[in-house]
Structures are given as structure tokens and as C-alpha cells.
């Protein structure tokens, strides 16, 4: 797989009124979390930004996209990127999640960003299909039964290409409603689905549930020639 020209991260940790894209030459590393582990506060991910690519994207999407020079790279981005690209040598941008949009509209945004795949821009949508912090247990080593059910139901829809049930996820089951008490960590998945081409291969390179109530399932799309 060639090194991408840039990476666009859609993180569940940047929710805004309206849609924004970072347009900084040197985005700062944000430590946007509570007291989890002091060692996390020392991590820096000094990837360059790409203001010119941000402007290019803003000029080529059919929705209003504001250039943002205040945000940076939050932990929805750098916790993943530091493992994928440890040298931090690929330019990174972030796209915010517009809180005013419906699930259908978030899915459509993914469709409207599909052209980036043809421009060698890697899109990473970062969230968790199962994300219930009220039932999170730091010491729990096994997944809660309801979390396993929800994770499996969502995976089934993905494998079968069933988009409509995921756009109306609250109607799927009580387990899924427990898994998604708020939509912010689920919305990024809808961008992945929107960017999916009918000839894509879909797989799950990472599986598992952490601390009882957090799914670590990763969804990867690749053209079949890359598979």
C-alpha cells in the first residue's frame, strides 16, 4: 500500500455546530481526556498539517466546510496514527462531526468525501461501535454479554452491506441501544459506510472488547486489487 499524500481523520472527539476542517501547518497534539494515565500527557505526535489540502477539500465538497486554525489532533487521531505512522511524517487533517446532522446526513457526508480515495488521501474514521462509559470497568477483563451481542449485530450489518438498519440503529435491539447511549462515537462509522464502493473488500483487522463496554473492532475498506 503506497504512503498516502495526507490523512484525513474524522474523530468522535471533535463535535461542532457546523462542519470544520483543520487548516494548520503544524497542528498541536491535544490531550483531551480526563485523568486516565499521566504517561499519556507526555505523548506528542508532531505530524505536519496540510492547509492547502484543507482548502482543496473545502472547495470540492457540496456542503459548507469552515477552515479551522484552533483545534489540532485529538486523541481520537493520534492514538491510532502513532502506531500506523510512528515517524509522524504524513500530513494530517481532522474533520469535525456536525452535531446538527442526522445519521442519514452523516452517511451522505461520507459519500460526498469518496473522491478523496482517488487522490491518495487516507481517511480514518475514529470512534467505537460499542461505547458505554457509564458501564465501563477499568478492571473488567471480559466483555459484558450485551456488548458482545451489540458488537455482533453491528458487524453482521456491515458484512451483509445492510446500511439502513445502522442508520436507524436505535431500532435494532436493546443491546445496541445500550451500546450507543450517545451517537458521537458511532457517527464516524457512517462515514466509512458512505465511502464504501460496491467493489470494496471489507474486513476487521482488529477485534475485541475492552473493559466490558468498549468495542475495539476496526473496519477496513480496500479495493479488491489491494486485498
SSE topology:
Layout: E1 6-16, E2 19-22, H1 51-59, E3 65-68, H2 75-84, E4 92-98, H3 103-112, E5 121-126, H4 145-160, H5 164-167, H6 174-179, H7 187-194, E6 200-206, E7 209-210, E8 214-215, E9 218-223
Helix pairs in contact: 3-7
Keywords:
single chain; 227 residues; alpha/beta; 3-stranded parallel β-sheet; 7 helices; 22% strand; globular
Structure notes:
With 227 residues, this protein is α/β, with parallel strands linked by helices. Helix content is 28%, strand content 22%. It has seven helices and nine strands; from the N terminus they run ββαβαβαβααααββββ. The strands form four sheets. Strands 4-1-5 form a three-stranded parallel beta sheet, sandwiched between helices. A two-stranded parallel ribbon has the order 2-3. Helix 3 packs across helix 7. The longest helix is centred in the C-terminal third of the chain and has 16 residues. 37% of the residues are buried. The mean pLDDT is 93.
